[in-house]
Amino acid sequence: MPAALSALASRAAARGGFADFQPDACLINRYEPGTRLSLHQDRNERDLTAPVVSVSLGLQAVFLFGGPQRADKNRPVPLAHGDVVVWGGVSRLWFHGVRTLREGEHPVLGRQRINLTFRKAL
User: Fold this and answer.
1) Domain CATH code at residue 53
2) Which domain holds residue 8?
């Protein structure tokens, strides 16, 4: 992983109350208008005490942040290009997803949204 991206994730985690976070994995998701990410939990990592750091690039999206049960009410969180979301602790295993991406055109990335998700996988 490029040092600049690792440092970005570490700084964001520290600002969110998670000092000493050093990601060792970055998932890259690409969305086009009409696509979405259904509600899910990020539970494949060995260390669930480490936070998740998510960086949004490109088209705006609506992040859905629920609770520990899939049926819990979701809170919509609008995300714009450059927004960073950090969650962990008691909310680490809360269900989350992305609403269907609306049509649009980002001046640099065009008709897409790219999400970088930093984690401590090992």
Assistant:
1) 2.60.120.590
2) 3-119
- The answer on pLDDT for 53 being more than 90 is yes
**Of residues 122, 88, 119, the one with CA closest to residue 26:** 119
pTM for the whole structure: 0.93
The total number of residues shown for the chain amounts to 122
Q: Residue 58 and residue 113: Cα distance in Å, rounded?
A: 4
pLDDT digits (tens, 9 = 90+) for 3-51: 999 999 999 999 999 999 999 999 999 999 999 999 999 888 888 999 9
Asked whether 119 and 52 are in contact (CB, 8 A), the reply is: yes
64 backbone dihedrals φ, ψ, rounded to 5°:
-105, 125
Question: What is the separation of C-alpha 8 from the centre of its chain, rounded to a whole number of angstroms?
Answer: 13
Q: Which of 56, 38, 50 is nearest to 95 (CA)?
A: 38
The count of domains in the chain is 1
